Amino acid sequence: MKSPAAYVRISQDSEGKRLGVQRQRQDLKELAKSLGWGEPEFYEDNDRSASKVNGKRPEYDRMLVDVEAGRRDGILVYTVDRLTRRAMQLETFIGWLEAGHEQIRVPVETIEHDDFRTSNGRMVLRIKGALAQQEAERMSERIRRSQQQRVESGQRITGSRFRPFGFTHPVAMEPIPEEQDEIRGWYRAILRGESIRSIVRGLKARRVPTVSGAAWTQRVVKDCLMNYRNVGKQEYTYTDPTTKAEITELFAAEWEPIVDEATFDAVRATLSGNPGTGESRPRCYLLVGLMICGMCGTRLYVTSTGKRKPDGTLAHEARCFVEKGGCGKLARRYEPLEQYVVAEHLRIAEAGRQLVLTTPGLKEAMEAKHRAALAAANPAQDRAEKLQVKMDEAKAEYENGGMEAEDFYPMLRDLRARLNDARKEAAEIAESVASMPSPDTLLVQPSVIWDQATFDQRLAGLATSFETIAVHRSNTMGAKFDTTSVVPVRRKAQEPKVIATMLGL
Fold first, then answer.
1. Residue 285 CB contacts under 8 Å (≥ 6 apart), including other chains
2. Is the pTM above the cut of 0.85?
3. Could you tell me whether strands 466-471 and 291-293 are parallel, antiparallel, or unpaired per DSSP bridges?
4. Residue 50 near residue 86, CB atoms below 8 Å
5. How are beta strands 41-46 and 5-10 bridged, if at all?
6. How many angstroms separate the CA atoms of 495 and 154, rounded?
């Protein structure tokens, strides 16, 4: 053989890998020399299973390609189960051994000197392959039973060499208080409406290390928040031997939970739509959509600064992002910016309220329209009540035998139709009255209405006052907010006649 392939597969710890590879390399070189073959090309797969149906073995696949391309004309392997533990894969090599009948195209040699050139040798190959597959399946069953027993008893099972964030060891799971406090802070931040991106920015700014030494990412933080180990549970997924379907069950764990189940469920429900898996969380920043960069005119977005305010919550800033098409040269503290714009909106609302109250005849016209609507609603309601009384009297008279059925049922149909008409008319008038702005509501201070409004109502209110809010760089230093750097673009002022038209007067 001029260019045989030597395949090596190791599944041991780090020291065992080094020693095992050296030993197998030396043995396979001596085997090639004893057969009179040339120096072999080694193909090594470390920590790669040969029994999984969809298992990836890059070097094994590369060896098959090289053999089929004619770059290798023989295969050396320590034992058959090192080559493969699946009977179906063995058929590939058997096909090569049987090619050209008596002419052996691609011989396979092992340390045990199995003779695969004869029919009896190929039978032995198939038997060894079947036994290797059976041993792999039995091993898998034993591991699965062992894992299930461990998880049912509350012990942790993992294939990761890294400990989870918040715990000292991947199996022992002793708590690390400072890291678990960090995780609790993440849950509080999500419930306050902050994004995972802002949490990641804060971690990077405070130089909090990960367990692996890699950088924090949104996926890492989200996976940690969604993991049931934070509530003292663990998931166990197994394949049903009958249906072949994957089944996931939850078991109580032996370690103490980091957060309570109510907090965990609320955050898990919030994050189940983020990112790319459905609906996103509701908006929580009033000015997003209104703010634009005063330098380039693109929209500003809100992100965490990674710093905390005196109350312990994260501070945020309105930023122009290059990846969003902006210049990336503007960043302003968001909290005082929102406070200033809200104060301007309430000032505009107060001015509009005074305009309504001071416009001659406008308030009086509203009151007169209300009185007329209420007066129209009262007769319809009175008529409905009187018809209901007549129906009740007719039913009582019929039940007492004072009225025949041929007289009662036509009367009942007529009264019922008239009652329905009266009730419909009263309901339409009442709905119309309810939709009218009451003169009394105009007397309420806009700040009181703002405090009682929902987030969507506040958004709608700001949209009635401003078209856009241009934010420029600050001209002042220190903690004082520079109001001259914020330029709200007002919507057209509402004259009294415009207000009267909007109120339907």
1. 302, 316, 334, 338
2. no
3. parallel
4. yes
5. parallel
6. 71
As a whole number, mean pLDDT of residues 474-502 equals: 71
Condensed to tens digits (0 to 9), the pLDDT of residues 350-392 reads: 877 776 667 667 667 777 776 676 666 667 778 888 888 888 8
Both tokens of 180, joined, read 């678990």
State residue 102's pLDDT score.
42
How many of the other CB atoms lie within 10 Å of CB of 355? 15
Cα distance between residue 325 and residue 228, in whole Å: 39
pLDDT band at 199 (very low <50, low <70, confident <90, very high): very high
The CA distance from 371 to 241, in Å, is 76
337 CB-contact burial (10 Å; exposed 0-12 / middle 13-18 / buried 19+): buried
Contact present, 387 and 418 (Cβ < 8 Å): yes
DSSP E strands in 313-375: the ranges are 314-319, 331-333
CA distance 228 to 213: 23
d(CA 45, CA 59): 6
Strands 246-252 and 486-490, sheet pairing:
unpaired
Per-residue pLDDT reduced to its tens digit, 61-79: 888 888 878 788 888 888 7
φ and ψ at 489, to 5 degrees?
-95, 110
Q: Of 270, 293, 355, 285, nearest to 315 (Cα)?
A: 285
Could you give the CA distance from residue 27 to residue 60 in angstroms, rounded to a whole number? 19
Cβ pair 38, 47 in contact under 8 A: no
Tokens 């030597």 — which residue? 6
- Please state, as a whole number, how many other Cβ atoms lie within 10 Å of the Cβ of residue 429: 19
Mean pLDDT of the 241-245 span: 65
Look up residue 410 and give its two tokens.
Answer: 């036509």
Residues 6+ apart with CB under 8 A from 364: none
460 vs 451: CA distance, rounded Å? 14
CB 18, CB 54: distance < 8 Å: no
Q: How far from 103 is each of 35, 97, 106, CA to CA, in Å?
A: 18, 9, 9
pLDDT at 143: 64
Q: Which residue has the tokens 């995780």?
A: 183
Three-class DSSP category at 108: strand
The two three-digit tokens of residue 154, written as one number: 């509350």
pLDDT on residue 273? 55
In terms of Cα–Cα distance, which of 61, 52, 54, 62 is closest to 11? 52
